[in-house]
Specification:
The complex is a heterodimer of chains A (228) and B (224). Chain A is an all-alpha fold. Chain A contains 6 helices and no strands. The longest helix of chain A has 48 residues. The chains are: A mainly alpha (228), B mainly alpha (224).
Chain lengths: 228, 224
């Protein structure tokens, strides 16, 4: 297992360096936006990675409620935490990209950015609940909240979609086709980010397992002392 | 006892308790009044502007005030271990939840009925669109706030700083519902566009989360 972890860390480091070179030097400069467009190779892969992690969170929450397997709960916690980290990258890089291109930091009518923001808020509230819960059944309650959050996503999307048709919003990219070389760089970056997310999740998972073992040992110890 | 009987009995008990103590409704009314007065100082709009922003102000005031009532929903049942007694009784969980949701719906509706005339007076409002549409908007919007509010109040029951946990959970999930209520109300007030889509969105939100709450409430009750 330890060898697997080292291997993954090595692959991630190599992929990330290669992706950095590809995004900053090898990828062609965009015609109208210029070099600013290169933030695209960080913004979009982070968003995709965050969405994959939130999907994992939803699936493992459902699995936990059905099977009551503590591993599913661990996976739900870890994927939400790492997902929030990548989602934060999206929320931060979005305005940095929007400012020079659209002339504004934030477009309330932009469907993708706003949906991502609401998603970010939902998962932060999920993590706050996990941290604040004092009941012994935190995993159940957290899984229920995760399902509610996932149900909310399509409603958020449609409400912002209609909100946009009423309010003028900046034109985004024109929806034109992506240069195949750019698509190539985008996919390499996504692969690198997915490996990084995997690495983070793995570390966080092991840490959480260790933390729970320590807590259990301490509880057992105090029980034994009490019975003496 | 049947499902309906349990719902009715719990609802009657809650309304009687509230009628005698008036804890939730008084706090909620005074809180909403404060919000209206503070808003009227913070924004001093002309009639045309006030029509555009009133929908947002009204619903934000109701949302904040509703949290006051929602926080009391289950806290009341912790005293004397009423909730534990309910859990060991053979009664199913859903009638209890529905009774609580109906109770909150009634309290928040009373608040809205009292506060709306005040809003109209403070902001010199005149409806330019089809005014009857405000009725389904108010009913669906209130249910949207109350159904998730009641559910999340039960979830935040066993957390540290319970009173702040409820809005932290409720507000992010309620964003589409809030968009629906605010935009539907503004559409009717200004009469510029149709509120149909927003009413449909509210309806979808209500159906989805009522179903989800009824499916999952038992898990939450046994987890408390």
């Amino acid at each position: 297992m330890k060898r697997g972890f080292t291997l993954l860390a090595l692959v991630t480091a190599l992929l990330l360096s290669f992706a950095l070179y590809e995004a900053l030097i090898a990828a062609p400069t965009e015609q109208t936006m210029g070099n600013v467009q290169r933030i695209f190779y960080y913004h979009v892969p982070s968003a995709w990675t965050a969405f994959v992690l939130f999907l994992i969170n939803f699936v493992s929450s459902v699995v936990y409620l059905i099977r009551r397997n503590p591993k599913a709960d661990l996976l739900a916690l870890v994927s939400a935490e790492v997902g929030v980290v990548f989602c934060t990258v999206v929320i931060v890089t979005g305005p940095i990209w929007a400012r020079p291109v659209w002339g504004i930091w934030w477009a309330p009518g932009d469907i993708r950015l706003t949906t991502t923001l609401v998603l970010w808020l939902i998962y932060i509230s999920y993590l706050v609940l996990r941290r604040f819960s004092t009941s012994g059944r935190t995993p159940v309650v957290a899984a229920v909240v995760a399902i509610f959050g996932a149900l909310d996503v399509p409603l958020v999307y449609f409400s912002i979609w209609f909100f946009r048709t009423q309010h003028p919003s900046p034109v985004i990219g024109g929806g034109g086709s992506l240069d195949p070389r750019m698509a190539h760089v985008l996919l390499i970056n996504w692969a690198a980010f997915m490996c990084l997310a995997w690495l983070f999740s793995w570390t966080r998972y092991e840490l959480e397992v260790a933390k729970r073992q320590v807590e259990e040992a301490q509880a057992l110890e105090s029980l034994l002392e009490g019975s003496r | 006892m049947s499902f309906l009987e349990i719902t009715r009995a719990t609802l009657a008990k809650d309304i009687r308790l509230e009628w005698r103590s008036k804890d939730a409704i008084n706090a909620m009314l005074f809180f909403a009044l404060l919000v209206v007065v503070i808003f009227s100082f913070a924004f001093d709009p002309t009639a045309e502007e006030s029509r555009r922003i009133a929908g947002g102000l009204i619903w934000v005031a109701f949302l904040f005030a509703a949290v006051v009532a929602l926080n009391q929903t289950w806290a009341r049942e912790l005293r004397n271990q009423v909730l534990d007694a309910y859990r060991v009784s053979p009664a199913p969980a859903n009638p209890l939840f529905l009774a609580k949701a109906f109770g909150n719906f009634i309290f928040v509706s009373v608040l809205e009925a009292v506060m709306t005339p005040l809003f109209v007076a403070f902001y010199k409002l005149r409806v330019l669109g089809p005014a009857w549409e405000l009725v389904p908007i108010a009913l669906l919007g209130t249910w949207a706030l109350v159904i998730n509010g009641t559910f999340f109040a039960a979830i935040s029951l066993r957390t540290r700083s319970r009173e702040i946990m409820l809005p932290l959970l409720l507000f992010p999930i309620s964003i589409p519902a809030l968009l629906g209520m605010v935009n539907a109300t503004t559409a009717v007030l200004t009469g510029e566009e149709s509120a149909r889509f927003w009413i449909a969105l509210l309806l979808a939100y209500d159906v989805v989360f009522t179903a989800a709450s009824l499916l999952l409430f038992e898990l939450v009750l046994e987890a408390e």
